[in-house]
């Protein structure tokens, strides 16, 4: 049994991905263990990126992008299914009980995308009569809302079947069949299924198949019914209170949720759980205590240690991950479907995927300590880390992730300006870099110093970064980028869609054209490239390029090849502070001290070519730049001491013996 794409998991996430891929022309099969057991059915259907008070900016951006898709997405599904999803942008009220809560929450939406309005005690009681007298105010989020999660599940299932997705319900996946970094098939209760590509969307059960830190977080919920004696719905907005939420439906039912219990897959409702829910809900909206109870249920959220999803590539080349959505699976269904489909069908990695890559949970090693630091002066060892407790000096770090691809080294190098191919080879080895940028035009034209370049490096170990050096217009850069992608494929990197974008019409100062760069970036992103644009240290341009979908931004430290060092420090700091994608400092660094300084600012990586190639001993300088990048990164993570305007003795006088 084979298909183009096999999706494991038949909840909202799995079905949404299946529908999106099928509508793009793929042959899709879904394996579902138990459709009714999916967390989709146990949810409340809240669409609440603001009310959830998400603190992770990447997660907030992902949730808001998904919320923005909801009106069109649900309309399309309803037309295909002929059934309603009951999407309702009813808004959410977040009441608070104490004045100190009000003061804290006054700051919460200040930098957020959506409008949020603070309502004082009088205003909130007028806006929603019946709230408890102890409510002192609250936030009103008019653009948050809800969808009937069970209705959405029925619609997704119906649409999937109607467009030709093959759904196998009641099939349990028991194991992946893997070989040499690829999935060859899945062993199931119904035999072996095979596909060209696989998607894992198994929610809370993901850890049973692959060792990712996804655990079940049980939630108990209940449903009340509005008494027939009340002619109108008393609640027309979701109430998101302290440790509770109350979701009114247009069918005159009200959902109350939800407990949060780390009890594994322990089933059933409990008196303690239901009592807690009722106490919290009736405290917020007292008249609920007289409403009849219609239903109790429970479900298992797929939680991760940081409460963020795991999305994107996996250790297997043909397996994509879409798990760990925790409390926001319903909200994130449309954006997850879109970016996973882009990744599979177009090899287009959304910039946000880097924040949700599985590698963030891997044990982190520190490359600077993989070699014994045994420097010698003559025949005498003057320093060693061999006997030092390395836990004392390691600082938790995440790998460098660009467009979903993980790199250990934070130093990138180039291939130009070397006196010989041999010096270039030695320098790249000494630098321990994993990304090497190559000028497409110079390789294709076999320009001086680039003869035999393609054969000179081990492209099984080095990731090629084709660049558009020499291009003066956006159109020219787009054409050369396409050639670069084909060049990478010829060298065995079939999935390499990276391009370092350079648009430089100025022959004297070699400063990049911001308008041409943005134009070219927008087009290349549409074509599925992971774009790494070389730019002036312009914070506004950096943000525009990020919004356009670029994989990184690469601001110059000073004019390219000048060796002037960091001349744009203030602007680079602003770019780093405001960027949600990696920032790579590129151009102008002339010495290891400057490389370390750039990393101390918080840059994610460096690209250094001229300072290495033009050194008297390029290989030694490459090694020095490697150590500088490592030292700067470690210093940034360690956190430098504050700068003071006065002296402070290293050995204080307090407690010393005095005569």
From TrEMBL:
Reactions this protein catalyses: [ThiS sulfur-carrier protein]-C-terminal-Gly-aminoethanethioate + 2-iminoacetate + 1-deoxy-D-xylulose 5-phosphate = [ThiS sulfur-carrier protein]-C-terminal Gly-Gly + 2-[(2R,5Z)-2-carboxy-4-methylthiazol-5(2H)-ylidene]ethyl phosphate + 2 H2O + H(+); glycine + O2 + H2O = glyoxylate + H2O2 + NH4(+)
Record: residues binding 1-deoxy-D-xylulose 5-phosphate: 561, 587-588, 609-610
Keywords: Cytoplasm, Oxidoreductase, Schiff base, Thiamine biosynthesis, Transferase
UniProt cross-references to NCBIfam families, sorted A to Z: thiamin_ThiO
Membership in a protein family: Belongs to the ThiG family.
PANTHER family: THIAZOLE SYNTHASE
Job of this protein: Catalyzes the rearrangement of 1-deoxy-D-xylulose 5-phosphate (DXP) to produce the thiazole phosphate moiety of thiamine. Sulfur is provided by the thiocarboxylate moiety of the carrier protein ThiS. In vitro, sulfur can be provided by H(2)S.
Quaternary organization: Homotetramer. Forms heterodimers with either ThiH or ThiS.
Designated name of the protein: Thiazole synthase
Species in which this protein is naturally found: Calothrix parietina FACHB-288
């Amino acid at each position: 049994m084979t298909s183009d794409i096999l999706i494991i998991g038949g909840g909202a996430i799995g079905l949404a991905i299946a529908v999106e891929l099928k509508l793009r022309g793929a042959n899709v099969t879904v394996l579902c263990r138990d459709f009714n057991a999916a967390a989709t059915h146990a949810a409340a259907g809240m669409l609440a990126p603001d009310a959830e008070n998400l603190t992770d900016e990447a997660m907030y951006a992902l949730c808001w992008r998904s919320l923005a898709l909801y009106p069109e997405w649900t309309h399309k599904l309803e037309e295909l299914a002929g059934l309603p999803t009951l999407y309702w942008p009813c808004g959410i009220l977040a009441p608070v009980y104490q004045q100190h809560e009000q003061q804290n929450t006054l700051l919460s939406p200040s930098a957020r995308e959506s409008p949020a309005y603070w309502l004082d005690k009088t205003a909130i009681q007028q806006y929603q009569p019946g709230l408890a007298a102890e409510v002192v105010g609250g936030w009103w989020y008019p653009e948050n809302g809800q969808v009937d999660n069970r209705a959405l599940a029925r619609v997704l299932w119906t649409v999937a079947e109607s467009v030709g997705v093959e759904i196998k319900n009641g099939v349990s996946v028991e194991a992946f069949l893997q070989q040499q970094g690829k999935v060859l098939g899945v062993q199931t209760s119904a035999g072996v299924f095979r596909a060209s590509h696989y998607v894992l969307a198994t929610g809370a059960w993901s850890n049973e198949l692959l060792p990712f830190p996804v655990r079940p977080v049980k939630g108990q919920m209940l449903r009340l019914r509005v008494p027939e004696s009340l002619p109108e719905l008393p609640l027309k907005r979701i109430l998101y209170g302290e440790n509770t939420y109350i979701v009114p439906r247009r069918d005159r039912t009200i959902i109350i949720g939800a407990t949060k219990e780390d009890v594994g897959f322990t089933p059933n409702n409990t008196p303690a759980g239901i009592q807690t829910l009722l106490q919290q809900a009736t405290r917020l909206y007292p008249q609920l205590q007289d409403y009849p109870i219609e239903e109790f249920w429970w479900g298992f959220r797929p939680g991760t240690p940081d409460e963020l999803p795991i999305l994107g590539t996996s250790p297997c080349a043909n397996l994509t991950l879409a798990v760990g959505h925790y409390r926001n699976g319903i909200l994130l269904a449309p954006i997850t479907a879109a970016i996973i489909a882009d990744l599979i069908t177009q090899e287009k990695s959304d910039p946000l995927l880097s924040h949700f890559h599985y590698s963030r949970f891997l044990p982190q090693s520190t490359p600077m300590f993989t070699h014994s630091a045994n420097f010698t002066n003559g025949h005498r060892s003057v320093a060693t880390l061999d006997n030092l407790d390395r836990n004392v000096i390691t600082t938790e770090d995440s790998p460098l992730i660009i467009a979903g691809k993980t790199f250990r080294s934070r130093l990138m190098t180039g291939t130009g300006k070397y006196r010989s191919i041999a010096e270039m080879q030695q320098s790249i080895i000494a630098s321990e870099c994993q990304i090497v940028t190559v000028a497409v035009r110079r390789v294709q034209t076999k320009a001086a110093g680039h003869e035999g370049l393609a054969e000179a490096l081990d492209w099984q170990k080095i990731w090629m970064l084709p660049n558009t050096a020499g291009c003066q217009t956006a159109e020219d850069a787009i054409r050369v980028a396409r050639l670069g992608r084909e060049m990478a494929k010829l060298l065995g990197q079939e999935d390499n869609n990276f391009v370092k974008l350079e648009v430089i019409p100025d022959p004297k100062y070699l400063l990049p054209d911001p308008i041409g760069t943005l134009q070219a970036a927008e087009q290349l992103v549409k074509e599925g490239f992971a774009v790494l644009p070389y730019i002036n240290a312009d914070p506004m341009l950096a943000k525009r390029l990020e919004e356009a979908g670029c994989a990184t931004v690469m601001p110059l430290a000073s004019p390219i090849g000048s060796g002037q060092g960091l001349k744009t420090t203030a602007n680079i700091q602003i770019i780093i502070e405001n960027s949600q994608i990696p920032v790579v400092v590129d151009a102008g660094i002339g010495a290891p001290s400057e490389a370390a300084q750039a990393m101390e600012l918080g840059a994610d990586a460096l690209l250094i070519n001229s300072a290495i190639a033009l050194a008297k001993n390029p290989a030694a300088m490459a090694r020095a730049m490697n150590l500088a990048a490592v030292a700067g990164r470690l210093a940034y993570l360690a956190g430098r001491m504050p700068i003071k305007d006065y002296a402070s003795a290293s050995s204080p006088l307090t407690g010393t013996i005095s005569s």
